[in-house]
Amino acid sequence: MNILITRKYPEAGLQLLKDTGYTITEYTERRNLTQEELIEACQTQDALISVGGNKLDETFFNACGHLKLVALMSVGYNNVDMKAATRAGIPVSNTPDVLSDATSDVAFLLMLAVSRKAIYMHQTIIDGKWDFYDPNENLGIELYNKTLGIFGLGKIGFELAKKCKATYNMQVIYHNRNHNDKAEQELEAKYVSFDELLQQSDVLSVHANLSSATKDIFNKEAFNRMKPTSIFINTARGQEHNEQDLIQALQQKIIWGAGLDVTNPEPMAKDNPLLFMPNVCVLPHIGSATTETRNAMAAMAAQNVIAGLQGKQLPNIVNK
Ligand code: DGY
């Protein structure tokens, strides 16, 4: 059996694959394969481990008749046309749960960094501007007893809510397609409408999957409904907020601050105005970037491949 991996692969996953005796091809150049290259490479492959968001569309699935399965090393699957995969008879798996702690840590980190302008304050020292103590300067916002709003309360949102409640006694409100009974019971989270979420959140954190329903949902109209003291956090997908509208909302002080681990496009241009705003912190999509989590994700994707190539159902199949 032949397995293609689109990046240099974390050791825990690689070892599991090596132990099977299958032939592994790791693409180790620091660039994304083009679709033509990926299609060509997949002609002889039985399994593809997609790392880094390759676009897998109808053209790809129709052109890769030999492929038996695709394992994504990510929880998000917005780059995959699942209907086309299903039509082509190719199961696709993702890596849920194992990155919830690490990603919710980054949402928490952004919330705290923005609330105290930490990144900007660090830069003021580099710029030689730490020259005076004025009790009215450099002021942040405290998080104690504030309201955390979660858009898309799944596993990652739950972990963030748990940390915010335990650390800052934050009240949790959320908006989802469905009620989250566990969050309501364990965290006293309250289900609210999208409009109430916008109006009541002191910190609004995005955790929903990217879909046609969530694309651009945080736009001018949404920011206009938020509190002038509120902080917007996005660790899900950059296409869920409209960047120009976010820049304007911050410049016009319609909202107070923003923390982003995801941007649109990625990578963000180094002259993007968001990078120079005091109340903004932007990170380069590092939600799951810890040694432990990346190894756990790689192992989970490998286990899906191994199960699939043994003719079993992929444990984390998305297109059932
Ligand atoms: C995920 O797993 O979806 C992360 O955002 C990395 O792409």
UniProtKB/TrEMBL annotation:
InterPro entries: D-isomer_2-hydroxyacid_DH, D-isomer_2_OHA_DH_cat_dom, D-isomer_DH_CS1, D-isomer_DH_NAD-bd, NAD(P)-bd_dom_sf. Residues 109-287 form the D-isomer specific 2-hydroxyacid dehydrogenase NAD-binding domain. The keyword Oxidoreductase applies. It comes from the Bacteria. Keywords: Oxidoreductase. Its EC number is 1.1.1.79, 1.1.1.81. SUPFAM superfamilies: Formate/glycerate dehydrogenase catalytic domain-like, NAD(P)-binding Rossmann-fold domains. One of its GO terms (cellular component) is cytosol. One of its GO terms (molecular function) is NAD binding. It catalyses: (R)-glycerate + NAD(+) = 3-hydroxypyruvate + NADH + H(+); (R)-glycerate + NADP(+) = 3-hydroxypyruvate + NADPH + H(+); glycolate + NADP(+) = glyoxylate + NADPH + H(+). Pfam families: 2-Hacid_dh, 2-Hacid_dh_C. This is Glyoxylate/hydroxypyruvate reductase B. It comes from Parafilimonas terrae.
